[in-house]
Write a structure and sequence with these properties.
CATH class: Alpha Beta
CATH architecture: Alpha-Beta Barrel
Radius of gyration: 18 Å
Strand order of the largest sheet: 1-2-3-4-5-6-7-11
Largest sheet: 8 strands, parallel, barrel
Oligomer: single chain
Structural class: alpha/beta
Number of strands: 11
Number of helices: 9
Number of domains: 1
């Protein structure tokens, strides 16, 4: 099993101007990761998105790193300012960026919940609305040798039952799931239990960890966020929280998963140290 990292793990450093994506590529190489995946990025002034993607692909090749995935935002329920056709066409452009990167996978969101009851009343209504547009996108991607997937995040579509319903509704072999073992907690679901439902559809897996506090207690500070059920979570170093990461890795291996296991860090700890510690933890369990 290859160990990867999401570029989102460096997000805070990049946002603060302390790091570039090229710095992230070099640190990823030095730490020992096999591959990297890129979240949405903005090109620098004077560069197009296409040319910047080509620059990133070249830097990764020179560093001996594979690129496993490109992750981009999307809304298949409300579209681009209410226009679903425009959203699908925009995302086809992101498939083309994935092709430039050389990423065999592209992760896109599904939606971010119901704004009101005029378009959909329940998550099941939303799934029925979104499925045809998601299918159109994955057919476009399939013709370019890229598989598409949706991650269990965003609260609204996050637990295993809803994710399974989505992938079954799309009903296309080129479409699957990015399974984030930590994110199930955001929907108050036990991670190891959720994997039993979603692993048959897994194209890619994330390792993420959280600290947890019961919703009956006050939120400690702004670094914590609420779950769907009103409990409190805070991102932390992989292996330092309450997610059964080691047990989850053993389970996905038993399921026959041999793709990339990517670290995604989003806690308040110092990112570079957190990434090193998380890598060491994943390496130990992935080789067991």
């Amino acid at each position: 099993m290859k160990i990867g990292i999401s570029s989102y793990s460096y997000h805070r450093l990049v946002k603060e101007g302390k790091y570039t994506l090229f710095d992230a590529i070099e640190f990823t190489r030095k730490t020992g990761f096999d591959v990297i995946e890129f979240s949405d990025f903005d090109p620098p002034p004077g560069k197009s998105l296409e040319s910047f993607a080509a620059d990133l692909a070249k830097a990764c090749k020179e560093a001996g790193l594979g690129i496993c995935d490109y992750a981009t935002h999307a809304d298949f329920l409300y579209g681009s300012d209410g226009d679903m056709n425009r959203e699908v066409e925009r995302l086809k452009g992101r498939v083309d960026i994935s092709k430039i990167l050389g990423a065999p996978l592209m992760r896109h969101d599904a939606c971010w919940g119901l704004k009101d009851n005029t378009r959909a009343r329940t998550w099941r209504d939303a799934v029925k609305i979104m499925a045809p547009a998601i299918r159109e996108l994955t057919e476009y991607a399939a013709a370019r040798g890229i598989r598409t997937m949706t991650e269990n995040h965003g609260i609204f579509l996050q637990d295993s039952a809803r994710m399974e319903e989505l992938v079954l509704a799309v009903n296309h072999p080129n479409y699957g799931l990015l399974v984030d073992m930590g994110n199930f907690m955001c929907a108050d679901e036990i991670s190891i239990n959720a994997l039993a439902t979603v692993m048959p559809y897994a194209f890619h897996v994330h390792a993420k960890d959280f600290l947890y506090k019961d919703g009956a207690e006050p939120r400690p500070d702004d670094s914590w966020f609420p779950t769907r059920g009103g409990n409190h979570l805070r991102g932390t170093i992989v292996g330092h929280g309450v997610v059964s990461v080691g047990q989850c890795i053993q389970y996905i291996k038993k399921c026959g998963y041999d793709g990339v296991l990517s670290l995604e860090f989003e806690g308040p700890e110092e990112p570079l140290d957190a990434i090193k510690r998380g890598y060491a933890y994943l390496k130990k369990f992935s080789q067991a």
